[in-house]
């Protein structure tokens, strides 16, 4: 549905977006994340055709945004962080204006009425927009994005400034919209993204650092599998009993978090799920299991790890080497360097990347001299 390929946008000598590529399939809800200044808004503005790129392409429903802008834009409904509302108009006047602006061919009254019912603004249809609450203004913004029934919705911070009840309502609406629309959702409210989105795309300093599900990203970042168990039983005896379960690598007592119970962090072998044997063992000994946590990273943990300077630098290094693969993939030293990941070897990787750069520069200079 959406294909972003080698997208680059520069302002002077500064990269706002640096050679990023990703796809969004039909019917997906994709969370688009990154710190302030990472390049999220620039990317979304390029996808919508508001900005042009220096390099790369964006296709929406098969239409290149630069080659066929009108066709591509007909497929997109966009809600910027600040909803584009004319505050002195009534809701009816504004939505009718957007309907005419988009050249919509659907039956006007029925189409606008259906959208108002969907986003629950029928009760304020005749009210002036500037007199509406923040939540209702946000709903009117979503309504204008839905006019024309676009196949793609791009929502930039759709719940910013809303109260908890309004956030839940907008979140439910977005899930409902995904049944008929492909959705890109950008938000700094990470629990919201985790609860709504099927896949996460993260950029930092203009570079794509992650594109996967939250579960897969957590497993990638945490090599060992851990669970946290809270058990009402004698600490040392419980610890010895858990150590005897097949698949347990290490058990670490975490102390008392609740009266008359002890918490334990249990590390297991790769691929081993000890939850059932753990439960059966505790049941046999009549030690109540009060809590069992998978220990997976939250999206907040994932975000902080992936947008750290060290991780971004690592991604940049690997990309630099990957770009040189066609020239150097037969070089055994190249293959070894691509596989290196530990911090101790980063200096070697940097040095090797500079070595490849100098070889390329030397080859280009020799070619120019021959000409």
Description:
With 371 residues, the chain is of the alpha/beta class. The protein folds into three domains: 217 residues, Rossmann fold (3-Layer(aba) Sandwich), CATH 3.40.50.300; 71 residues, 2-Layer Sandwich (Alpha-Beta Plaits); 63 residues, no CATH class. Helix content is 43%, strand content 23%. The chain contains 15 helices and 14 strands. The strands form three sheets. A six-stranded mixed beta sheet has the order 6-7-8-3-9-10, sandwiched between helices. A four-stranded antiparallel beta sheet has the order 2-1-4-5. Strands 12-13-11-14 form a four-stranded antiparallel beta sheet, with helices on one face. Helix 6 links the parallel strand 7 and strand 8. Helix 4 packs across helix 5. The longest helix has 25 residues. It is flat and about 75 Å long. The two termini are 45 Å apart. The mean pLDDT is 84.
**In angstroms, what is the radius of gyration?**
26 Å
**Stretches with pLDDT under 50, minimum 5 residues:** none
Q: Output the structural class.
A: alpha/beta
CATH architecture of the largest domain: 3-Layer(aba) Sandwich
Amount of helix: 40-55%
Q: Biggest β-sheet, characterized?
A: 6 strands, mixed
CATH homologous superfamily assignment of the largest domain: P-loop containing nucleotide triphosphate hydrolases
Number of helices: 15
What is the terminal-to-terminal distance?
A: 45 Å
The H-and-E topology, N to C, reads as EEEHEEHEHHHEHEHEEHEHEEHEHHHHH
Q: Would you give the CATH topology of the largest domain?
A: Rossmann fold
| Sheet with the most strands: spatial strand order | 6-7-8-3-9-10
CATH C-level label of the largest domain: Alpha Beta
What's the shape?
A: flat
Q: In percent terms, what proportion of residues is strand? A: 15-25%
